[in-house]
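User: Hi! I'm working on a homework problem where we have to compare a predicted structure to a textbook description. Could you give me the structure for the chain below?
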Amino acid sequence: MATAFAHPLARPARLLGHQPRLGPKATQNRGSKQALTEGLNIAAHGQRLVAAAQRAGVERIVKLSVRNVAHGATDPISTLHRADEEAIRASGIAWTFLRPTGFMSNALNWAGMIAGGQVVYAPFAAGRGAFVDPADIAAVAAACLTQDGHAHRSYELTGPEPLSPADQVAILSKVLDRDLHYAEADPAGSVAQMVSYGMPEEYASAVIEQFRSTLDPWSAQPTSHVTAVTNRPPRTFADWARSHRTELLSPASW
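Assistant: Happy to help. Predicted structure tokens:
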């Protein structure tokens, strides 16, 4: 059976750092397809992917979306993902939508601040999210691509606990054995910083709007979907931090 994994890249690898320039490309291996795009080209990329999948006789598509889609969000990234999901639904190909909350790996953006001092700045101090380890997303995607029983299902993928930025910094302080403290950053200043690193302003603003959703009550609510698909609990933020201690302490290493 030919399968496809659709992954429109809606988040930068480092929120306030260097953003890799990933153009639309697809790789094929052992009858499976993986597709990547960048920035706000999600909808156009999705249309090309669906057309290519139909030509190739693909029978199953697993799309990496965003959790916000399930909660009526109207920010630019969520709106584009919603349109992409609709195009896949209309394709006639069996689909599974993975809708993760914010990635734990976004904390890698703080590596420079961790290495350079004691204060970690991030916007939306009042926000909380049940952030998910990307490794758990990958495990769910692999299961959905290789196992039956996931067609026409949507999974909201989260970690096991709701965390504020201050909570995350406190966990990092303990795991890394550093005296770290959190301070709230101005969202507009965060957008300006991303733009200064070369990110288009439209994309930077869209990313900040995604993070603004941590202020919504649903963002703090964990789900059981990672466990339901993988038969194991999702990893905690402390688990993730221990696995990425080197990268967090030595940003130049990655």
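For your comparison, note the following. The two ends are 36 Å apart (CA to CA). The CA atoms of residues 98 and 155 lie 5 Å apart. Good luck with the assignment!
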